Amino acid sequence: MILLIHNNSSEPLRINKIQVPVYDAAGAIAFRRYLDEKGRPSGVSTLSERVVPPSSAISVFNPFYSFNPEISLVRLHYEVLFEKMTEQEPNLLHFFS
Questions:
Q1: How far, in Å, are 2, 11, 24 from residue 84 at the CA level?
Q2: pLDDT digit string, tens, across residues 8-47
Q3: Is the peptide bond before 41 cis (omega within 30 degrees of 0)?
Q4: Are 11 and 76 in contact (CB under 8 A)?
Q5: CB neighbour list of residue 2: distance below 8 Å, 6 or more residues apart
Q6: What is the pLDDT of residues 56-90, one digit of tens each?
Q7: Contact partners, residue 38, CB within 8 Å, separation at least 6
Q8: How distant, in Å, are the alpha carbons of 3, 8, 31, 58, 64 from that of 22?
């Protein structure tokens, strides 16, 4: 599965974190998976491409392509956090579901 990530801004943005909360039948978060820049090497560094050019899009391999078959996957909500290339702190600019 591929994630298509769009950047509608006028500057390049770097993917800082990808997370996916998994919701149960009651609408509560059952658990959450994520890749971020913490760790050596960081989980997000496994992405082959992390910079989304301005007014463009990139395809990223979905790092969360499989789940334990015993878990009921009622709803998945993919969230992508970006940071400006000139900043170190993450900026939550856009959500993708």
A1: 23, 8, 34
A2: 999 999 988 999 999 988 999 988 998 887 777 777 777 8
A3: yes
A4: no
A5: 59, 60, 61, 62
A6: 999 998 888 888 888 888 999 999 999 888 876 44
A7: none
A8: 17, 27, 6, 24, 11
- The CA–CA distances, whole Å, from 29 to 45, 72, 74 equal 26, 12, 10
Are 5 and 94 in contact by the 8 Å Cβ rule? The answer is no
What is Dmax (Cα atoms) for the chain? 44
Residue 37 identity: E
Query: Token pair for residue 79?
Result: 């969230």
DSSP-assigned beta bridge partners for residue 35? 18
pTM: 0.77
